[in-house]
Write a structure and sequence with these properties.
three-stranded antiparallel beta sheet
Length: 426
């Protein structure tokens, strides 16, 4: 099996529609940047005052590193490895010295497709960033962000989010809104890292029971979550293939339209937010539940009847606070609930498609099946978890993963950031 060339990908849009197609993705990318403004506010609000700026720098640094690494090798991984781990010749179009990777007037599409994937990549790194606040070394995070954002997730995308990916052609895998290939991958990678990283000082008592470490600014965290929700409309638009004749398909070439996506994104947000509010009765989990609800319906966003999407999302929202509490009691310190919202939310989303949309035909492979979705979910969980656990484990052995205890107690800002967050801060 050979990967499609960029010329073949670009053939889906006629020359007459070049401006409208490229503008569609241009503004999708711009809207997706709101996700990262949201993650920035979310993580800084969730940190204590002594760690606010370190959390912010870490998140911003991820963006500055993902962009060039996606250019130099990440895009090649996606184009070259849909069949497995043996590169296909078509991947050469993603090499940084290829004529398609620059201002090539005969190819107006590669740059916008690449840019959309860059923002997906930055999302995976930001998911890790929030979970590791207040104790990871900035240098360690930078390395892990590159491995996840420009390596692991790109391999997942090649396998499970490509019209020639083996998970589609062999399993009939369906993940239209990237809940599996982005969120599940990032969530399970994060789980592997957090196991190695350990909990924050003071998080658990001598009896092993978790203690509350309060965010310094809950309103900022909630506003950050709302910005992430707003940016998700750009994220979801980036998951659609927009054709010059006005028609649209999902990433697997199945016909769709924006009406289906808008119905279900809004229903997913509403259902997830209400579900978590019923359980937790507070704004942080209400907004986290809204994000969880969108992720929960994302894999089948183009297939579900809106009433069903609402129920699927509400189910995820109801489970979210309980799952996060269970994870916390197992000794895994995840201050922002990333493993629950993204990792298990992505897995739930992938499996839900197999439960509720089994038999739906795929243009490029077998029909959707529960077995295919279960296998796909398992592959993504392993693909995410193993690199995160192994690489973080090596860093731990070398003493390069976590800040020293005295630094953590004092705060990362005084040691790693030459600035003060608040003028009344000692």
């Amino acid at each position: 099996m050979s990967t499609p060339t960029l010329e073949q990908l670009s053939a889906t849009v006629a020359a007459s529609g070049t401006l409208s197609v490229t503008a569609f993705y241009f503004w999708s990318v711009a809207l997706m940047i709101l996700i990262h403004a949201g993650f920035l506010a979310y993580e800084m609000g969730a940190s204590r005052t002594k760690n606010v700026l370190a959390s912010g720098v870490k998140n911003l640094l991820a963006f500055t590193l993902i962009v060039p690494t996606m250019f130099y090798f990440g895009w090649w991984i996606y184009l070259a490895l849909p069949s497995g781990i043996v590169p296909d010749p078509g991947g050469a179009a993603g090499l940084p010295w290829n004529s398609h990777m620059g201002p090539n007037l005969s190819d107006p599409y590669n740059g916008v497709f690449w840019a959309v994937f860059v923002l997906f990549s930055a999302t995976t790194a930001s998911i890790l960033s929030g979970a590791a606040i207040e104790r990871i070394k900035i240098s360690a995070f930078a390395i892990l962000a590159i491995i996840l954002g420009s390596g692991v997730w790109m391999l997942a995308a090649a396998w499970g989010w490509s019209p020639t990916g083996w998970m589609l052609t062999k399993l009939g895998f369906h993940d239209a809104g990237a809940a599996g290939v982005v969120h599940e991958i990032a969530g399970f990678f994060t789980l592997g890292v957090l196991i190695q990283l350990g909990a924050r000082v003071g998080k658990y008592g001598s009896d092993g029971k978790p203690r509350e470490i309060r965010p310094h600014n809950v309103p900022l965290t909630v506003i950050g979550l709302m910005l992430i929700i707003a940016g998700f409309f750009g994220f979801m638009a980036g998951c659609v293939i927009y054709n010059a004749d006005g028609t649209m398909t999902d990433i697997y070439s199945n016909p769709t339209n924006l009406a289906a996506w808008l119905f279900n994104i809004l229903m997913g947000f509403a259902g997830g937010a209400l579900g978590s509010y019923v359980v937790a009765r507070e704004p942080f989990w209400m907004m986290s539940g809204g994000l969880l609800g969108i992720i929960a319906i994302a894999s089948g966003v183009n297939l579900y009847y809106p009433g069903l999407a609402y129920l699927i999302a509400m189910g995820a929202g109801l489970m979210g606070p309980y799952v996060a509490s269970f994870i916390e009691k197992k000794g895994i310190d995840d201050p922002v609930g990333a493993i629950t919202v993204h990792g298990l939310g992505g897995l739930y989303s992938v499996v839900a498609v197999g439960v509720f949309s089994a038999g739906y035909p795929n243009v490029g492979g077998p029909a959707i099946s529960l077995s295919g979705q279960l296998i796909g979910a398992a592959v993504l969980a392993v693909l995410g978890f193993v690199p995160g656990y192994v690489v973080a484990g090596v860093m731990k052995k070398l003493g390069t993963l976590r800040v020293d205890q005295e630094v953590e107690v004092k705060g990362l800002d005084p040691v790693e950031v030459p600035a003060v967050a608040y003028d009344n801060q000692s």
